[in-house]
Amino acid sequence: MRAMRAMMDFLLPEARALDLAGPLSDYAARGYARLGRVMNDAGLEALRARSDDLMLGRVTYPGLFFQLDAGSGRYEDLPYGKGYQGPSTSYRKLEKLEKDPLFLAWIENPLFEQIARSLIPGEISIYRAVLFNKAASGGTPLPWHQDGGSYWGLDRDPELQIWTALDDAPVDGGCVEVLEGSHRDGLATPLGGLIPGERARAADADARRVALPARAGEALLIHNHLWHCSAVNRSGHPRRAFTVCYMSRATRCLRKKRAPRTFTPVF
């Protein structure tokens, strides 16, 4: 077991001694923070390969969530509820990646544990662990949105997600774009999710957006209420990123039409 864990140690040595005072201050004030590069080459190679294996069906786990890109390229046309539709590198989203030991090793790395414990009191679980993929052919644009609200079906909104670039995510590759400080105003609507067009226009969001290009192995802290979006990938190369939402283990699912969700404890 110890040898296996050593093989899955994907954290750069210098990241273990990272001074978190600056990033945590930025996260509180701006709603996001850069950690710099924290994943080593072995981790990038392993998680890129595993991402492709999952999309192509070479590695499978029961209960994984898959969503293909819309053929039209329009967010409004994204397919829902269809699950795995055969081998393709054009899946937009893969969820429940905590089922995979390689991704779980990254979820539980000591740097992320230190960050999560500094922001979340008590025991910790994850709401979701997701690969967001923009294929080399373009992918689907993601409009302004927030990750919370009644749409998420929880008794409290999580606040912390940590996003890691598995490939370079340049400006023309569909990098994350944010409206700095927007998290301080809470939810734009009780439902959460997409920001209504009139709210985005009133905030002059498109003119005020801040692009956050990242190199492979870099990580970002993102507050769930921060307005964020991304464009299509025009770089000609895949843009894969892995994001994990951490929350208090006391969080409960409120849905009633089906059995309430349970959440994976970490650390």
From TrEMBL:
* Molecular function per GO: 2-oxoglutarate-dependent dioxygenase activity; iron ion binding
Write down the required cofactor(s).
Answer: Fe(2+)
One Pfam assignment: PhyH
What is the protein name for this chain?
Phytanoyl-CoA dioxygenase
Species source reads Sorangium cellulosum
Per the UniProt record, the lineage of the source organism begins with: Bacteria, Pseudomonadati, Myxococcota, Polyangia, Polyangiales
